[in-house]
Prior knowledge:
Layout: H1 3-34, E1 40-42, E2 47-51, E3 56-57, E4 62-64, E5 70-76, E6 82-84, E7 90-92, E8 99-109, E9 112-125, E10 132-135, E11 140-144, E12 149-150, E13 155-157, E14 163-169, E15 175-177, E16 183-185, E17 192-202, E18 205-218, H2 223-234, H3 250-255, H4 257-264, H5 283-294
Parallel strand pairs: 2-9, 11-18
Antiparallel strand pairs: 1-4, 3-7, 5-8, 6-7, 8-9, 10-13, 12-16, 14-17, 15-16, 17-18
Bound molecules: heme C.
Amino acid sequence: MNTKTFIIGILIPFTFIGSLISCKHESVKEKFDSIPSIQSIQYSPNNIEILTGTSFSSVIPTTSPNQTYAYNINVIPNNDNIKINPEGQITINNVITEGNYVIDVIVSNSAGSRTFENIYTVKVSSTPTPPSALNYPIDSIGVSLGTNSISSTPSISGTFPFTYSIVSDPVNPEISISNSGEISSTSSLTLGTYYIDVTVTNSAGSKTFENAYIITSTNLISFDSNILPLIESKCGSCHTGGSRTNYTVYNNSKNNINSILNRIQRVENSPGFMPASGSKLSDNDIAKFQKWLDDGLLK
Ligand code: HEC
């Protein structure tokens, strides 16, 4: 074989492989443009403490953007009794030994994959720890008379599982607590402010958290109870995150209330009338926007 054929012999396969790689590259890029890769993942709560001999499944995580992903985990120190299922739930087998485990979750789709370090922690111990540090991310709510409410899920430390009970002051049968600690009130709750003590119990004991949550039932118009549902049903698509002002954001509605009132009271389909190319809000709905302003633009 002379030098020339040798060089050509090497170059041809290389160019071939090179073009294959660049081809593949383009198709990956194309997918990148159409399928967004994962930005964030959240487990709420993001930790668990269990007794040896107990199995457990975490909550299903919320992801942004909300898409279908494949999940893998990296457990530190390595342990085969902690796994992740196709929905992203972290599962623990009851034969797991005592210890503290930190979990990295690797989330992938065709746009790529990303590792979220220390996203979940697991503590397995042979003696239970009593409940402590009950916390509602938002610990009070104003509810309009005639509407119901539900709190977010509280975070709690101590050994899983927990049971919850409440005493409200004043006592009211319309307020209750779920198995995971969410406090709700029905639409029959009467006017007043209710201070709620939450008692959390596990195998190590019970603890009462005084005034852990406060519900105020008012007949004032508030953004969350009265205005937001109107914005979502009547001003949707245009003002709920598209190119126009997003009025599902409290401050945006609050700061533009005069302009909103002006636009919704114009003659239907006249210039500037809102909802654009829709029909006029009912007198009752328009009155709600006006009363929201009169009542002080409550959140
Ligand atoms: C079909 C789409 C559409 C719907 C539905 C709609 N809007 Fe608009 N809105 C627009 C567009 C487009 C503009 C910008 C043009 C203008 O100012 O008239 C606008 C402007 C406004 C403005 C002026 C300030 C700003 O944000 O630009 C207000 C206030 C407003 N809309 C309120 C509302 C309210 C309240 C509703 C529901 C009751 C609503 N709109 C429903 C499309 C819409």
